[in-house]
Amino acid sequence: MPEQPFNFYLKPEITYKIVSTRWGLFTALGGFCYCYHFTWTVAGVDNYCDTSRTYQCVKDINGDEASAIYDMGIALVTIFHMVEWLR
To answer: What's the pTM value of the predicted model, to 2 decimals?
Structure first.
């Protein structure tokens, strides 16, 4: 088959043929992505709920003030990975 432009391969019938003939590769790739996002979702929830997030991180900051430094970042990254995992 001669080389085609990229948008040729995005047609549903061509994409179906590629995926159905290389199903092992696409299953492995999909499984890796699934496990990757699931792992980071679990890690994010674990870090967000862990008691160590209230430990002192700077000399004069502890408790809820220490937790507030990373709470928003951990929550956003966890939500991103959860959405990608569910998608």
So the answer is: 0.63
